[in-house]
Amino acid sequence: MEHTWTMGSITTSRTIYGCMRLGGTWDALPPDDTAYERAFAALDSALAAGITVFDHADIYCHGKSETLFGEWLRARPGIRDRITIQTKCGIILPGGTPTTIYDFSRDHIIASIEGSLERLGVDVIDVLLLHRPDPLCDPPEVARAWSEISSRGLAVHLGVSNHSASQIDILRQATGSDIVANQVEISLAHPDLLIAGTAWNQRHPSHPLRDGGVIEDALSQGTQLQAWSPLAGGKYLAASPHINPECDETARDEKVAKLLTQLADRYDVSVEAIMLAWVMRHPSHIMPVIGTMDPKRIGKCVEAERVSLSREDWYLLTAAARGHAMP
Ligand SMILES: NC(=O)c1ccc[n+]([C@@H]2O[C@H](COP(=O)([O-])OP(=O)(O)OC[C@H]3O[C@@H](n4cnc5c(N)ncnc54)[C@H](OP(=O)(O)O)[C@@H]3O)[C@@H](O)[C@H]2O)c1
Fold first, then answer.
1. 60 catalytic residue (yes or no)
2. Range of the domain at 38
3. Torsion of CA 17, 19, 22, 23, to 10 degrees
4. CATH code of the domain in which 124 resides
5. pLDDT tens digits along 307-317
6. Which end of the chain is more exposed for a tag (fewer CB within 10 A), N or C?
7. Is 20 in the pocket of ligand 1 (CB under 6 A)?
8. Using CA positions, which residue lies closest to atom 5 of ligand 1?
9. Structural domain contains residue 130
10. Contact yes or no for 182/217 (Cβ under 8 A)
11. Total count of domains within the chain
């Protein structure tokens, strides 16, 4: 049966457009004309490619990504009702504070969502994610914040990012709410979550136990997994890939890049699509959160939605990315 992608009550596109780079620069300078043009072109292209979910965070480009997105929405009347807006809270970048701080306090969560709503120029956030686990997180306090957000109608659904299954469970119980999504790093350059279930009892140093039950939580509880940086920031893909010749992993990375090109030829899609198809092949129906701002590449990325990688090709890529075969 055809799978439908949903987050809580919301039906979405398979691919998510990540707005982290939208604001151009990570500083307090206002965006210039070039930043506006690049951002609008990327967002128009994502929408034209059928993407309806847009991923933000209060901190992206120090708020400029949300601000530019808000300007785009104002310039494109009628779009708000056709799209899902997701944003994150809980990280404070150095500036007013001496170091990066994670803050899941009630006051910070409420102030953060109010700021996002204002920058985006919308009345409601569809999905609010807690960005990274705060070691000082007090679940009842998060529950109070979420209860206030819900009753004021500031957000529809609660999700998390970079959380383990047990952390999700604690928040689920404390808030009495579904945790509709967990956004985590998954790519060929960062495959650990997908293979940890096989490699958990292996001694090889490249098999750190990192999964925290995340895959099992997605499969058993239906938490929608979202993969951030699924193109590994362009590693393997650029004309001169970001492969470090000083590093002894060069041979392995070159092998991955070559295999991606071969498979792209065979499946008659882009290399970007093959990279994403490797993430999307997993039965938990992972949604990739793509971050390219190149309109042509955005189109190439959504080609992944029509690729079903064979089991053999998935394992070939996995072994190449690990640098050795499965145990
Ligand atoms: N939850 C979290 O903690 C977290 C952390 C990081 C990111 N995220 C989310 O994930 C989204 C995606 O992250 P990301 O931007 O790192 O993901 P990505 O899609 O893996 O990487 C995008 C980057 O790769 C470059 N790239 C892609 N294909 C390329 C090619 N063929 N040749 C050269 N460069 C290429 C892009 O450059 P061009 O723009 O020039 O194409 C862009 O700089 C973010 O926008 C954000 O929404 C979440």
1. yes
2. 6-185
3. 170
4. 3.20.20.100
5. 999 999 999 99
6. N
7. yes
8. 228
9. yes
10. yes
11. 1
- Would you say residue 28 lies in a domain? yes
In a domain, 163, yes or no: yes
The pLDDT tens digits for 34-45 are 999 999 999 999
Which residue is listed with tokens 């492969």? 243
Categorize the per-residue pLDDT at 207 as very low, low, confident or very high, splitting at 50, 70 and 90.
low
Q: For ligand 1, is residue 183 a contact (CB within 6 Å)?
A: yes
Query: Which pLDDT tens digit goes with each residue over 262-315?
Result: 999 999 999 999 999 999 999 999 999 999 999 999 999 999 999 999 999 999
Residue found under tokens 């092949």:
281
Tokens of 310: 């064979």
Whether pLDDT at 324 is above 70: yes
HSE-CB at 283 with a 13 A cutoff on CA atoms is: 6
CB 45 within 8 A of CB 162: no
Ligand 1 atom 13: the closest Cα is on which residue?
229
- Is 246 part of a structural domain of the chain? no
Report which protein residue has its CA nearest ligand 1's atom 34: 234
The stretch 132-145 carries a mean pLDDT of 98
Looking at per-residue confidence, does 235 or 120 come out higher?
120
